């Protein structure tokens, strides 16, 4: 697998599914895991420590609320971690965003936007990393960008 999709809770799946669907479209292989940073600390550490041996090229970690999952994974691996703040009920995802983006120097986490936009951008960002070494993924990204441009141009017709 090229990407590990990790979520703090199964309730994060509707957001992470946006990532999974786009990775599938881009021909990027992935697997999914539920690992709670707060309820499964040993499993989280083991997963992070074994990520490189498992040959993951990136980890996309989605979490809501306190959202320690991306940072704690990053603390346990040198595989690039992309954080997706899940939109929460209490603070509309701002708590998740700030928790993920405020990593101390030396433990980076690439942080995306809150919610579905961030989930989709995480897939694209992971694919861009993988495309540096995988020409098939690079071609899929080029085709995706071309479709985006064509759809935007065609949307002009809706104005008339």
Automatic annotation (TrEMBL):
Listed SMART domains: AIRC
Coiled-coil stretches: none
Pfam family, one: AIRC
The protein's Enzyme Commission number: 5.4.99.18
UniProt protein name: N5-carboxyaminoimidazole ribonucleotide mutase
Entry superkingdom: Bacteria
Function: Catalyzes the conversion of N5-carboxyaminoimidazole ribonucleotide (N5-CAIR) to 4-carboxy-5-aminoimidazole ribonucleotide (CAIR).
GO molecular function, one term: 5-(carboxyamino)imidazole ribonucleotide mutase activity
Species of the source: Secundilactobacillus similis DSM 23365 = JCM 2765
Gene: purE
Pathway given in the UniProt record: Purine metabolism; IMP biosynthesis via de novo pathway; 5-amino-1-(5-phospho-D-ribosyl)imidazole-4-carboxylate from 5-amino-1-(5-phospho-D-ribosyl)imidazole (N5-CAIR route): step 2/2
Family matches, as SUPFAM superfamilies: N5-CAIR mutase (phosphoribosylaminoimidazole carboxylase, PurE)
Taxonomic lineage: Bacteria, Bacillati, Bacillota, Bacilli, Lactobacillales
Binding sites annotated in the UniProt record for substrate: 9, 12, 39
Reactions this protein catalyses: 5-carboxyamino-1-(5-phospho-D-ribosyl)imidazole + H(+) = 5-amino-1-(5-phospho-D-ribosyl)imidazole-4-carboxylate
Gene3D superfamilies: 3.40.50.1970
GO BP: 'de novo' IMP biosynthetic process
């Amino acid at each position: 697998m090229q990407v590990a999709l990790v979520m703090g809770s199964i309730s994060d799946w509707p957001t992470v599914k946006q990532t999974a669907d786009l990775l599938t479209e881009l021909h990027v292989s992935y697997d999914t895991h539920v690992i709670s940073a707060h309820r499964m600390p040993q499993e989280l550490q083991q997963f992070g420590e074994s990520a490189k041996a498992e040959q993951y090229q990136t980890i996309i970690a989605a979490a809501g609320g306190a959202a320690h999952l991306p940072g704690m994974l990053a603390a346990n691996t040198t595989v690039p971690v992309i954080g997706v703040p899940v939109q929460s009920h209490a603070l509309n995802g701002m708590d998740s965003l700030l928790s993920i983006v405020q990593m101390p120097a030396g433990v980076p986490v690439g942080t995306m936007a809150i919610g579905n936009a961030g989930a989709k951008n995480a897939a694209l960002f992971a694919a861009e990393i993988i495309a540096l070494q995988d020409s098939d993924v690079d071609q899929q990204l080029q085709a995706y960008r071309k479709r985006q441009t064509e759809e935007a141009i065609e949307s002009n017709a809706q104005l008339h």
